[in-house]
Amino acid sequence: MTAIAARHTSTASAAPMERFVYDDSIVRKFLTATMVWGVVAFLAGLIIALELVAPRAAAWEVNGVRPFAWLAVIFETSWLNFGRLRPLHTNAAIFAFAGNGIFAAVYYSTQRLCKARMWSDTLGRLHFWGWQLIIVCAALTLPLGITSGKEYAELEWPIDLMIAVVWLGFFGVNFFQTLRHRRERHMYVALWFYIATIATVTVLHVGNSLAIPAGLFKSYSVYAGVQDAFMQWWYGHNAVAFFLTTPFLGLMYYFMPKAAERPVYSYRLSIIHFWSLVFIYIWAGPHHLHYTALPAWASSLGMLFSLMLWMPSWGGMINGLLTLRGAWNKVTTDPVLKFFVVGVTFYGMSTFEGPMLSIKSVNALSHYTDWTIAHVHGGALGWNGLLTFGMMYWLLPRIFQTKLYSTRLATTHFWLATVGILLYVIPIYVAGLTQGLMWRAFDQSGNLQYPDFVETVNALIPMYWVRVIGGTLYVGGSLLAAFNYFKTWQSRPAKYEEVVHEAPALSRTYVDPPPPPSRLSGVVGIGHKGDVWLQGAWHRVWERLPVKFTVWVVIAVLVASAFEIIPTFLIRSNVPSIASVKPYTPLELAGREIYIAEGCYTCHSQMIRPIWAETKRYGEYSKPGEFVYDHPFQWGSRRIGPDLAREGGKQSHDWHVRHMENPRQLVAQSIMPGYAHLLREKLDFEAIQRRVGVMAMLGVPYGEAVKPGRAAELARAQAAKIATELVTQGGYPDMADKKIIALVAYLQRLGTDLSKPDDWNPYEGFDGKKAADATASGATGGAGGN
Amino acid sequence: MRLSDIMSQMGLTVWPEAALVIFAGVFVLIVRRVLSRDRAAEMASAARLPLEDGTACEKETGR
Predict the structure, then answer these.
(1) Domain A18-440+448-490, CATH 1.20.210.10 — does that match?
(2) Three-class DSSP category at A252
(3) Could you report the per-residue pLDDT of A610-640, keeping only the tens digit for each?
């Protein structure tokens, strides 16, 4: 090791000097993983963008030849279809690319800001390899259809447990122990953002992932319907807040001053920025559920807090940009600053747009359309992506102790990425507005102007092609970055220099400055204490006490969550029961699992909002009491296909089977993938029993169906009935033991309970006398499991 | 009687509004403290922390 001593004079004191070396090998590991998984995530995104134009391209015929017929492989192969790859793309982008980028930033900056090596090299390595194992598990399970069916939290329970251990047990412990052993008394604001990230993501992950296993690869959320939706978006929105915002703000507040070689414009503003996000962000989740069956008070509260986020977010953006005061000339030549400036600008755009989209009247138009997709990608590709790449180019020469291979390539990457983002988001904004307006358009006679849903998808295809071009540019830029990274790594020294630093240990006998005196006179003791407290010296104390600081952040998050969650869960009027709503039959439950495994929720909603255009198109609006047995809820967030909340009974069994086999047999312009494998694969009837048992454990009144073998018996009987009806309708024979029958059973049930009498029997028609037993035992006992 | 019946009688619908006031109040206190003038030197010193980690290396020029 070549040792170079660097002395820290800023903390000089009477305490003995200590020598230490920063661990940059862990930063190199995480940064390399960021680059590798970034390319994977962007490529997965490009493939699913292609999925939406491929069906039309594959059908394009010139002189009897279909030059793009080969594209059919991506929408006719089960593990490559949109529903399975979209969760892979989102998980890879968020947890693999952004996640590894966050860890690289945290490990590099925390050591420098604390003037201490990370507490444990072993925990660092366990964190790194554990996180990569989680990513590999996700990459293997999601394309196989192993999913919990909750957006951005799709990973099944064994992986969820691994996440909890790696995140808190390895990463969290290592980080907080490093804080405890730091040699810089003041915790810089970037560390506050990291603390909030680690603490809050733990709370969110545990809270939203509570589930009962029904096998190694299957579990059911303990929450159902409205409450599951609430928890999901409490998690989903705050994952954006505390995984894609607060750690990146920490990154910004550390790396922008480094790159600009000047301190942050306003440290005061950064503190206000921090507390406003902690206090306000946690409330905003319900704005994802406007006009749904969620109680209106909750979504109004979400809107109000979202609007309050506007100012602090822009304050943070301005603070970041003004950090470049006097250094703007460097932006023209330094690609690092180019990435940072445009990345922070995208932060401003996203945080302007987010509150705007939370306004109910705007959301009524934007929700379920591509507008949301454009908003998300402005944030992910612009804010998270560009900031990560800016940090990467700044770190490369430092951690590999060599020159960056090519500044020109980095600059080219910047322009490809920026133009790529614009070519992505602009047409997708147009697509969102176009589809939203088409859905609500009425003709002069009061009928829907575009009654066929596919018309509103067909209009978007040109925009989807431009998105493919934009995505290709962004992927191309990331490939240039990977090449630049590799060549820089190749020119590293044979042995890395390790700089030895010196700093005094923090004194254990440190005493805070005395609190200010009370400014009041003529009051009793409590008045003086109150005035001293109002002067806020306690905040200065917190700023050097990581444990107390963390505890108060967690309390703020938990209290805010409790104020929304407790009323939602415990006030019965929020979810009025509907007597005619019964549990799914065992076969329908199995069909629902296929629906979840295929990722149908990524394109189809099951939530009809009380909006005229929606009730006209889909039928009666959705009621909270309809979802009391939905573990998990399947309301969806985007309609690339029509809403399915009232799908039951609209089409024949034969229509559904042929539509799933090849949607274009029945709807020529459809862009839905084919699911022919469901007509070949056999349903595992025996596995249904355990799943019915778990549902019963969660409070679903399954009655006699929980008895050993009874669920499979009921499922076989219903499958035989549907298969017979299918043949009668002119459909395929011998389908009774195939997965497609279970899916058809589920689809034919959707939304039909509402129009049935209170005492109807879900087993009627296929279980004879035994149905009466099931009825008597509670299987038809009405809503009550919530 | 179920827990949800009891909770339904407790008038919890006012909780979110009460929490909004409490959170906004604490937030205002923090802002007031942060913006107080007596911390100027402390703030300036804290802001310089990222520049004092002793890791500055030669400016890369690249190819």
Answers:
(1) yes
(2) helix
(3) 999 999 999 999 999 999 999 999 999 999 9
